[in-house]
Design brief:
The structure is a homodimer.
Chain A: H1 14-23, H2 27-30, E1 36-38, H3 43-53, E2 57-61, E3 67-72, H4 73-81, E4 96-97, H5 110-119, E5 124-130, E6 139-146, H6 147-158
Parallel strand pairs in A: 1-2
Antiparallel strand pairs in A: 2-3, 3-4, 5-6
Chain lengths: 163, 163
């Protein structure tokens, strides 16, 4: 019998195997906690929340904790340039809303989400749990995946912590 | 003589080899064009530049095109919340300045820069060319490296485009 040490040819190169491993990383391994504001909050409140929580993207939810919108730093900066009173302006005037929100789920591949962030030029996606499979309207926000999450995964790969 | 096909043992696994390749990626392969404003520009001008160029970080330069400061979306949002006139406020009042600016050079490793972005919790670094090796004060800005650059590198790895 040949000794069980060294290399056995599997039909794939080691590089292919690692690429496959990277390609199998999922959202749930790198997602962070979502930061949400209620749809009745003011733009002023949203800006304060963004600074206090130090995030770049806020998710807007309704009374049933379901996702109804997204606010980026850019949206808030644009609003704060205007002449209106930020305390009086509700976030649902300036937020991005369905069907223009891209979401992902905890089991999605990190590489697919990274591709979406690049292609759509957005900073982060909400990780959602669809309460009712047939409807887009009932989505509970369970996480947040951003370019920071992807950068953390990159550091892990470079430091050989994936394998 | 053994046939020159298949695998030869090099003392390293294929995974180690790919990790090494990823660890050798440099800033210059993924940097993008820097967007700068002059130190005499107003905060209002800076916000307009940020929207027009669609970037998250602006670099502030002096009359000799040398780096004197950095402006993030957060800095600009904070300023725009205040009561002062943005057209009258110069950017050098609110910018981050030396020695609190972290820079990198085109030959730095992408993995080191990714680690800095995570550790220091910043969105992007200026890529600089030190005109005078002995001084920190004369730095020409030649590029920009951000979490977007790192996310692009991640997508390339996942799609097996590095090897």
């Amino acid at each position: 019998a040949r000794p069980r040490v060294g290399y056995f040819y599997t039909g794939k190169t080691g590089a292919q195997l690692l690429t496959e491993k990277i390609g199998k990383l999922t959202v749930k391994e790198y997602q962070s906690i979502p930061v949400v504001v209620n749809e009745s909050a003011s733009v002023y409140d949203a800006i304060c929340t963004m600074f206090l929580e130090d995030v770049g993207t806020l998710f807007v939810v309704n009374g049933s904790s379901c996702l109804v919108g997204i606010l980026s730093r850019k949206d808030l900066l644009r609003a704060s340039m205007g002449k209106q009173e930020l305390e009086q302006m509700p976030v649902n005037i300036i937020m991005t809303r369905m069907p223009n929100i891209t979401t992902c789920s905890a089991d999605d591949l990190l590489s697919d989400v990274a591709q979406i962030l690049i292609t759509k030029q957005i900073d982060g996606l909400p990780v959602v749990n669809k309460k009712d499979g047939s409807s887009n309207s009932d989505m509970e926000v369970t996480g947040r995946i951003t370019k920071t999450s992807i950068t953390k995964a990159f550091v892990d790969i470079a430091n050989n912590r994936i394998v």
